[in-house]
Specification:
Strand content: under 5%
Distance between the termini: 82 Å
Largest sheet: none
Number of domains: 2
Shape: flat
Order of helices and strands: HHHHHH
Number of helices: 6
Structural class: mainly alpha
Radius of gyration: 33 Å
Keywords: Membrane, Transmembrane, Transmembrane helix
Mean pLDDT: 77
C-alpha cells in the first residue's frame, strides 16, 4: 500500500468514519501502475522467448499462450479499476471487484510461472562452457594447485616455528640454571 493511501486513511480521515469507507483515487492509480509494470515486464520476457526460439516450430504457440495469459491479467486489472471507479464505497466496490481481482492475480502468477519455466528450459539447452564438471576431481586439482603455489609459506612458517621452539627451550634452560 502506498504512503498516500495510508495518509488518506490515517491522517486526512482521522476520526472521520465516513472517509474510511471510500477507496482513494490514489489507490486506483497505484493499482493501474503496478498492473502496467507487470504487463510490460511479462511482455519483455515473452519477446525474449520469441528471440531465443528463432527457427523453432514451438516459437509461435509458446509466445501466444504467454501473451494471452499476460493480456488476461492486465485486462482483469483494468476491470478492477473500472468497477472501483464506478462507485468508490468499499461496501459496493469490494464485492464487485473480487472476481476480476482473483482472475488478475491468478493469471499473473500463471504467466510468470509459465515464462520462468520456458526460459529455464530454453536457457538450459543453450548453455555454453565445459560439460559436466566432476566436483571431486575439480576440488582435488584446485587444492593441489593451491598447495603447489603456496608451498613456500608453510615451509617458512615451520622453520620459523622450530627456531622459536629452540629459542624458547634455550631461554628456559638458562633461566632454570
Amino acid at each position: 500500500m502506498s504512503s498516500k493511501v495510508l495518509w488518506y486513511w490515517l491522517v486526512e480521515n482521522h476520526a472521520i468514519c465516513a472517509g474510511l469507507v471510500h477507496v482513494p483515487r490514489t489507490f486506483l492509480a497505484e493499482f493501474l501502475l503496478a498492473a502496467l509494470i507487470v504487463f510490460t515486464v511479462q511482455c519483455y520476457y515473452i519477446m525474449l522467448i520469441w528471440r531465443l526460439l528463432e527457427d523453432r516450430w514451438c516459437r509461435k504457440p509458446l509466445a501466444i499462450i504467454a501473451l494471452l495469459l499476460a493480456t488476461m491479467s492486465f485486462g482483469a486489472a483494468i476491470a478492477v479499476i473500472y468497477r472501483a471507479t464506478t462507485d468508490t464505497t468499499l461496501a459496493v466496490t469490494i464485492p464487485a471487484v473480487i472476481i476480476p481481482a482473483c482472475i488478475q492475480t491468478a493469471a499473473a502468477v500463471v504467466a510468470d510461472i509459465y515464462i520462468a519455466l520456458f526460459l529455464c528450459c530454453i536457457l538450459y539447452g543453450q548453455r555454453t562452457g565445459p560439460g559436466k564438471l566432476n566436483v571431486r576431481h575439480h576440488l582435488r586439482d584446485r587444492i593441489m594447485a593451491d598447495v603447489d603455489s603456496d608451498i613456500s609459506l608453510p615451509m617458512e612458517f615451520l622453520s620459523t616455528r622450530s627456531r622459536l621452539q629452540e629459542w624458547a627451550g634455550a631461554s628456559s634452560n638458562e633461566s632454570g640454571s
